[in-house]
Amino acid sequence: MMTFRKISAECNGRFVAAYFTEGAPDPEHDFRTDTGKVPDGDGQRLTNYYLGRDGRASFNPGMSQKMADVLGVDRRAMPTTETLAALFEGKRADNGEQWSQAKRKISAYDLTMAPHKSVTLAAEFAPTQAEGAAIWNAVQRANDATMQYVARELGFARRGHGGEDGEEAGEVAWTSYRHRTSRPTLTLHDAETDTTYLREAPTGGDPQMHIHNSLYNVVVTDSGHVGSLDTKRLRSRVHEFGAFFQAELADELRKLGIAQSYDAKEQATVISAVPQEACDAFSSRTAEVTRAARAYAEKEGHDWNAMTAELKNKMLKAASLAHRQKKNESADDVQAWRERAAEIGWEHHSVLDTAEAPALTVAERHEQAYAFAAKHLGKEFETAAVLDHDKLRMYAARGLIGAGISGGIEDIDQVVKLIEDKGLEVRGEQVSLVSCVKNDRVRVTNTAQIRVEETLAKEAVRASADRSASLSDAQLTEAIERCDLDFDNEHGQSQKAAIYALGKAGKISMLTGVAGSGKTTLLQPLVDAWKRDTRFSEEGREIIGLATAWRQADALGDAGIHQRYAMMPFLSRLEKGEQTVDENTVLVIDEVGQIAPRQMLQLLELQRASGCTIKALGDREQAQSIEAGDTVEILRRVLAKEDMPELLSTVRQTTARNREIAGLFRGEKPSADALEALRPKGKAAYANRDEENSDDPRNAFHLEEVRRAIDMKREDGTIRLVGGDQDEVLQQIAELYVTRRDALAASGSTRGISMSALTNQDAADLSRAVRRILQERGEISRDEVKLEAVDQRGEAYELQVAAGDRLRLFRRTWGAVEGKGTTVGNNGDVVEVVSHGKDGLRVRMKDGREADVEWRRLKDHKTGRILLGFGHAMTIDAAQGLTSDEHINALPRGVATATGFTSYVAESRAKGTTWTMISDGATFEAVRNGRALGDTTEITSDDLWNHVAKGMSNKPYKALGMDLPFTSQAEREKHVQELIRLGKMQEEMAQEGRDYGREVASRVQAITVEKAAAPRLKDLDSQIEALMTSHRGTVSQEERDLRLERVTKLMKSISPEL
Known about the structure:
With 1058 residues, the chain is an alpha/beta fold. A 6-stranded parallel β-sheet has the order 21-20-22-23-19-24, with helices on both faces. A 5-stranded antiparallel β-sheet has the order 1-3-9-6-2. Mean pLDDT is 86; it is low at 37-54 and 682-694.
């Protein structure tokens, strides 16, 4: 892997140099030119023998004198601490002056290359020093090759402010440093000051070889211009460079005869002889260190949660010392590692010459890498309509990890060319790639995606124009009068207008409604009207409710829809012929924002064939579909305004202030002028800056809204940065959950409190924290059964289940109530354990009934483990559609994976208060890591809250493949209008009984014939004209023949069968 971080020119150069050199003294002599000064017999300098360098700093090989003059260094000498300190401050090493007239905020970029843990262990536990040095040599050579590639790609000097005046190719420079270990960073919360600190663990580090490369922010061109780096290229291609490093490393290890495999999770080459158990045993021990300190503090009579950070630090040191003494562990890292290896029974042997590299031709290597890249890009296109072209290069490089990259950068170029020429498969369909330059980046989509989106647009226009099944004003008025809903207030009037719009619309229409606007409620009179509509059947219309998940589909039962399905099972039933749909059918789709264009197109094709009616409900500002594309955006562009009613007010929150906060998290649609004001202008529009550029100015607009919402919540005391380490944060959130649960129960609350998290792991950790509290209070039995469980992602764990537990279901689950079979719940539903036995569980469902569920009903078919998890917390996806009296938006790992969509869902679940709990330590660390190394500017409270607001406001709207060829909004709108025209034409022709497809094919054939015949006819006409000019008397036989030939040709072009 490869990571990078900025280095501040305002830093204390000596401190940064000490960080990279790990405090090693300056070299007394240069090992590259004088290897004989230190004996190599003991093996301690064998790496130096192979590399011509030792573990201390070294300039990049091949640095020119011109670059050395700019930096003020001796390129032939190893850099000293003084030299490095000056360079890190953006100064010449010889006289302390700036590198150029332009003062830099960033002096360098730390690019770190790290191999897989197995490579580190093979080097550290090698049976001989020579073998360890050889593996280190392989890593160093891969690092050097990668840095040469980086230099080639990033070596462009920016001109003008932010590069707005362009760039010029040139040379770059860097210094490399080898490190052997990694040490965990701990979060310490000071209970007295409520402050969170980060510090390095006072314990032995884990073995983890990595090489730091400080790439200086200077480019020297052939013309002598001294500029700064184009860091945008670095930011967008860091994964490609990391893959190139792994491919180069794999090649170097192959030369040593080392057997390897590929780790798909880490995208890295793995030394096969090193077992996974060993890699796990030597991975970061942050949690282990903290747990040991907690236990030691408790033994000494201290409450960890009430201690100061200083006392915790002392406990960490004491616990570490006690651990070493107890286990007889050496204070020396290497000796401690060997003792740990002995504990797990791992004995390492030589890995050299254990495998032969397969003899592949260049073409075979490229084909093998192409197959790998095409497979993974096909998977990427399943969830994204548009990709950066850089991803083609990244997957090409990853494919070359296994195939070999002896051709270096040219190999990547050739594999990318194969991808572009041959295309790839997406969901079993062979597709071609379509590339365009957008916003100074090359972007790629595929022909299948464009076809799906454009066909969906045309089909939607066609279906919306068909109003043969629309309800009348009278039918809708009568239905509204029959229902007991209140439509007198302003919100009710909006609901009534939406009812009329949906009912009177064509065979597809869409209701956009904010969370809590009563979308499901307003369906009640519509459902009633459809059931009484006997135009197609004496029994009234057949109504089927659909949603992505079973739980969301089941919620449509509140509107009186009795036939309900999750989307994929419904489509499967159609394919098998188990489900019929006709003109009498109404399909009601809830949470349409989660339905991908591919699935919506299937439904519209079904509508064309059957004549059914489709009514869609949803909100684009909530969770989007997992698959590629954006159905709501396509429908929004092509449907008439009267076919897209909106409900932009909510009735869920009971106070105006809470409604305002929820509304801010959703955000308003910015005006064109507001967006234009936020869009970069002129040459600087896509200039390269140190910060990430945003392609969508809507995010900048929404950031201000979310910041206002956060300020309001801070005033109300409903948002908090929670101090402490991971366990402490989870504990505090769990305590709030239990406290508010009890308070709501005492007040007579019927909906209680709910809690959401961003990931399944966080939801599981929070649920376990709540469970510990409830079990200590006696609400959960101590009589437990231990289950080997698994979640829907395949993550395995041990689950203790007892009476009183709340368990989450991961699929539609079957059970029995008083001996009668029934559905117990769906994926995301929570049940309460009443008892457990040898045959299964008795659980209480959400409707209060008790059901018996056999163990076999809960087993995962793949693993044989039980598909269950604790259910006090749920993921955001599971929370969508939920309403509770209070809600906790739990962010125990900070906002790194939050989006504007997930934040709006979480902040709009409650009728009352939404409590937002965010890890202070994770937030502080994220802000610190986002800053340049050596930046000593104080991190303020505003910095932390701005980081939170940025994470909670960013909305990564899904791109559309059909937009890619068009560079401006005007061009996109013109394209949409053409799709609308074609859609309407198709519907008109269908009503006239004309076959649109056949007519188009005939027209294409006629155009082709006309183009082919025109040159020949023109030639014949010229010949005839020449004859007529030279023979103005009687028509000759030759002329008659030519005229006959022309007539024959003309007749055949019009009717080929003549």
